[in-house]
Predict the 3D structure of the following.
Amino acid sequence: MLQFPFQDEPLSGPPPPSIPAGAKVRWRPLIPVTIIGPSGKLRFFPRALLDPGADDTVFPLAVVGMLGLALRPDSGHGLRWRGQSFSLRFADCLLELSDGQQIWRWPAVVGFSPAPIRYPILGLAGCLQFLDARYRGEDRIVELELNRSYPGTTV
Amino acid sequence: MMTQEYRENRARFSEAELAKYRGQWVAFSLDGRNIVASSADLEKMDELVTAAGEDPERVALERIDGDDCFLGGAELH
């Protein structure tokens, strides 16, 4: 099992009524992820949103060039981000999660978009489809376990 | 891999300090102590990190934003 504590983001204004008065931060299930290209090039994102409400796993389009990824033919898919339309292209890569003791690495078809999303999104396709996730809200921890469909390696 | 050292040092950056980078990508050193480079354009980050004498594979990439409410994948349609 991998455990990741939620990560905080500072509030820029007064807290909304949905969180305690006096709160200075938001706690989010943000986890560190490494994305790896075919030649072994990698980039590390310490805050990716682990989101079972997201259909796909999505990274910034710029990562394609950084890692030398080969985009799959344009499937015509796109996304709307805060009212604006953006392209969504897909490529094959490796994703890696680690808590410092274990390393999980698996092949995934990941979406890439020029949309200015704040965090890479680890959604169902490419990520959570292979994992069983338990969000422990009170403890602000997310626990991950591999499921039978996991296609990768563990070290 | 994100170390405890990274988490602790990264948390020391104040909101006011990070506000200077709002809307930009920031490359933090892997120990979380320093900002190596920043750019609104992630495509330029490798060049900037390299110019700063660091390895683009040895930094942590974060986008700094000021949204107090983030709905995640629900904002993607």
Chain B touches chain A through 36 residues (CB under 8 Å). Chain B has a mean pLDDT of 88. The longest strand of chain B covers residues 25-29. The CA atoms of residues 9 and 32 of chain B lie 5 Å apart.
